[in-house]
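name: query_chain
kind: protein
chains: 1
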Amino acid sequence: MNLGFVKDFFTDIRNFFSFGRVLGVDVGTVSLKLVELSRKGDVVSLENYGLLSTKEYLRRPNAVVQSSSLKLSARDAAPLLETLLNEVKPKAKRVIASVPAFASFAVPIEMPFMTREETEKSIGFQAQRFIPMPVKEVTFEWEKVGEYENEQGRKFQRILLVAVPNELVKTYRELFHAAGLTLEALEVEHTALARAITTPASRHMMIVDIGAESTSIVVTEGTTVRTVGQADYGAVTLTQAIARNLGVSSWRAEELKRRRGLMVSEGEFELSTSLLPFLDVIIRECERVRASYERTFGHPVERFTLVGGGANLLGIERYCAEALKIPHEAARPFAKVRYSEGLEPAMRTLSHELAVAAGLALKPYSLPIS
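structure:
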C-alpha cells in the first residue's frame, strides 16, 4: 500500500538504490521489530536488525502498542521506537512499515471479468458494499487473485480488496516522522509474509503467523496471497492460560512456556494441557481457511509454515502437522538475503520473529530495476 507522496520513490528505483538502505519495521501488538537491508549489485544483505518487546502486558493485559480496535497507541509505541533506534543505530532513514491483519480489512470479491482500468474504476463502488467504514475514511488497494467461468460461460475475476483506516495511516506517519524517519509505504503483514517466505515456484502454502494477541493465516500460490483469515488467540493467550491453570505469575508462565513448550516430561502434563485448547482453536481456524481456499481455487494446501513469536514453542511444528495432516516447512525469510555466518545458530528464532520485517524491507528489491 504505497502512500501518495512516495510515487516517485518507487518509480525511480535507481535513485533509491543509490540511497543504499531501507528499513522494514513490523509494528506488532506488544513489540517493534526492525530489519535493515542494503543492495549492492544483485546481492541483498542484512545490515542490521532489532527487536524490542514491552513486557508490561504480562502485568497489565491491556498494555499493548496496538489493539484490535484498529488503533495504534503512539504514546506507547514512540518510546519503544526511540529505544530500538538508539540500540540498533540504523543508517537507513526510509521505512516500510506493517499494518497488522486485525487493523485492516481484507475482503475477497467476485466480479465480472473486465480490464484492469475498468476494474480500477468500479472497485470503489465494490468497497462501499464490503468495508464497514465510509470509503472516504480508508486507504485501499486491490489485487486480482484469480479468474473463472461459470456454467453459462461468463467469465469472472476474484479480487482481494484490502483497506486501512486513514486515521491509522496518519498516526503511522506521525510516529516515524517524530523519530526522524520517512514512512515510504505501508503494507498489510500478510503481503510481506508472502514476499519473505514464498517464491514463484511455491505451491499452495499456508503461512501461520502466531502474534501476541492474534494469529494471521495466509494461503499463497507462488508469491500471490489467495486467502486470508485470523484467529483471536496468540502468544499472550497461551501465557495467560498457563498462569491461570498453574496458579503462577504471568512472568513465570512466560518462562515455562519458552523453556518447555509442548516438550514436557513426566509431572509437567499440566503445562501442555493448558496450551492445547487454545492451539486447537488456532488449528480449527487454519482448517477453515484451508477449506475456503480449496473450495474456491480447487487445489489442496500442500504444506504449512509457522512464524511469529508464538512459533518459538518447542514441539509446536509436530503438533500442528499431526493435527492438520500436512507437512511443516521451516520458514526461511532470509533465504534471499546474505547475512553473517555467525547468525546461523539464531536463525530459527530470528526467522520466526523477523519474517514480517524482512518481507517489508524486501519490498523495493522485488521491483524491476530497469
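note: Residues 2-19, 60-70 have pLDDT under 50 and may be disordered.
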